[in-house]
Amino acid sequence: MAQPPPLPPAGKNLRLARWLNLALPGAGLFYLGRRRLGAALAVPFLACFFAAFSLFLVSYGRYLSLTIGGDILEAGRLEKIGEVFPRVWLAGLAIAGVLIQLCSMALFERAKKQAAKGNNA
């Protein structure tokens, strides 16, 4: 059987770990010594965040060029504005980020319970 990950040292602050985990999924686990698990959650979350942010910036640039660059009512420009933002991609990336955050919170609670059991024993 595989050995369970080591318990956090007694000097680790669980409140700080919780806030780190809330700010960036996996950061609290990384702080508690579960580095692989923390990185496995943080990297995809950051990828989703930066992909959504990049899509938004590119789409906003297209929006600005359509609205500022000439008469908005000519030859289908108004219809193009409605198609500028890739709503499905943005929603999908947001949902993926929320799911990663929920997984991170559940795994953090599990790690916290294991730490409490280890300190009691």
Provide the residue-averaged pLDDT.
87
Q: Sheet with the most strands? A: none
Cα distance, first to last residue?
22 Å
Rounded radius of gyration (Å): 21 Å
Order of helices and strands: HHHHH
Strand content: under 5%
Oligomer type: single chain
Structural descriptors:
121 residues, mainly alpha, 5 helices, rod-shaped
Could you walk me through the main structural features you see in this protein, from its secondary elements to its overall organization?
- The protein has helices at residues 14-23, 27-31, 35-68, 77-82, 87-120.
- The chain has 121 residues and is an all-alpha fold.
- It contains five helices and no strands.
- The two termini are 22 Å apart.
- Helices cover 74% and strands 0% of the residues.
- The model has no long low-confidence stretch (mean pLDDT 87).
- The chain is rod-shaped.
- Helix 1 packs antiparallel against helix 5 (87-120) and helix 3 packs antiparallel against helix 5 (87-120).
- The longest helix has 34 residues, at 35-68.
Strands, helices and their partners?
Elements lengths: L13 H10 L3 H5 L3 H34 L8 H6 L4 H34 L1
In a few lines, what is going on in this structure?
The chain is mostly helical.
